Amino acid sequence: MTSARYRNHTLISMANHELWITVYPSTHKDHLQATRAAILINTNICMDAWKQIHFQHPNITAIELTGEFGKLHIINIYNNCNNNGMLTHLSTYMRDHE
User: Fold this and answer.
1) Does the model's pTM come out above 0.85?
2) Cα separation, 60 vs 43, whole angstroms
3) Which backbone phi and psi does 9 adopt, to 5 degrees?
């Protein structure tokens, strides 16, 4: 997995789509210009081994991996340091899922 850095003019990740699945924030379709976080998942990882965790914020993308090890949450955030709204969403999620 890696964090997406490059997007084309249509705001879609330029990752090689044969090798990677791009997971965008849950709000991506409604706020294309606001998306600043994405997660790339290698296609060798079984689709049944992960699911998206939905946040209603364009700067948070999250997935849950499940396997013999249990569950692992991976959260990619963009924090511009000028607005703590994203941190409120993240704090609430972390508190509710302890």
Assistant:
1) no
2) 22
3) -65, -20
